């Protein structure tokens, strides 16, 4: 691990890493366990990856913990997941504070069960002063849901006269997405575990220029080393944002012009 860490350029750490944590169910099934046991083990991976992300200087870590579509899973699994998320967040709060990690979320908070909402809110409040890593959970979230919400906000501002339709541009649109509060809105690096090459309705607007790393491993088996490997692979990529290699090489700024 030490050698692996040394291979990382501290000046080029991705500011925002987003993860599709897939494979908990398959991990459990392969061991003859209930799917919810896979989610329990998945929480341990969340802790590990939060630690290493914070350690190497990532500013924001967004985890896809529960999608809008996940509400359609069997009720017993939905209930188990909601309970697990609430309990885990409450239990981890003291450690998050100790490590200066601030918890935030994106998604439909109002659709979460009351008990989970209370525990989450407790953690948002208790970590609000933390200035290190932002741990951002996507809960009852989907990219299309968020885009529609942003469109509705713009439409209502336009209807009330506080915004002119001519002023709706990419900056105005991005400012109405639920990710607008993050220290870096667009993920530099998107990691998916579980081997599937798909985006699954995650951060559709924000991943326009994200670098993608897919791991065959199931989420409960994803290690700190795997995370650092993904960052090392990211650092070898040339991000061109639609330009040529020569243009990117001569440009001091790597920001996309919206
Ligand atoms: C995907 O695996 C995983 C989820 C839908 C839930 C992930 C949630 C956790 C790891 C708990 C999060 C906890 C906190 C504290 C953030 P899957 O069930 O889709 O697996 P499969 O593809 O093998 O069926």
Describe this structure as you would to a colleague.
This protein has helices at residues 2-6, 24-30, 35-56, 75-98, 114-127, 143-160, 170-175, 224-236, 245-250, and strands spanning 16-20, 60-67, 102-106, 134-141, 189-192, 211-214. Helices cover 45% and strands 13% of the residues. A 6-stranded parallel sheet has the order 3-4-2-1-5-6, sandwiched between helices. The protein is globular, with a radius of gyration of 19 Å. The protein is α/β, with parallel strands linked by helices and 258 residues long. Residues 21-26, 39, 42-43, 46, 63, 65, 70, 85, 88-89, 137, 194, 219 line the site of farnesyl diphosphate.
Summed up:
This protein has helices at residues 2-6, 24-30, 35-56, 75-98, 114-127, 143-160, 170-175, 224-236, 245-250; strands at 16-20, 60-67, 102-106, 134-141, 189-192, 211-214.
Report the total helices.
9
Bound molecules: farnesyl diphosphate
Strand order of the largest sheet: 3-4-2-1-5-6
Largest sheet geometry: 6 strands, parallel
Query: How many beta strands in the DSSP annotation?
Result: 6
Gyration radius from CA atoms, angstroms: 19 Å
Structural shape: globular
Poorly predicted parts: none
How do the strands and helices of this protein lay out in sequence?
Layout lengths: L1 H5 L9 E5 L3 H7 L4 H22 L3 E8 L7 H24 L3 E5 L7 H14 L6 E8 L1 H18 L9 H6 L13 E4 L18 E4 L9 H13 L8 H6 L8
Helix pairs in contact: 2-3, 3-4, 4-5
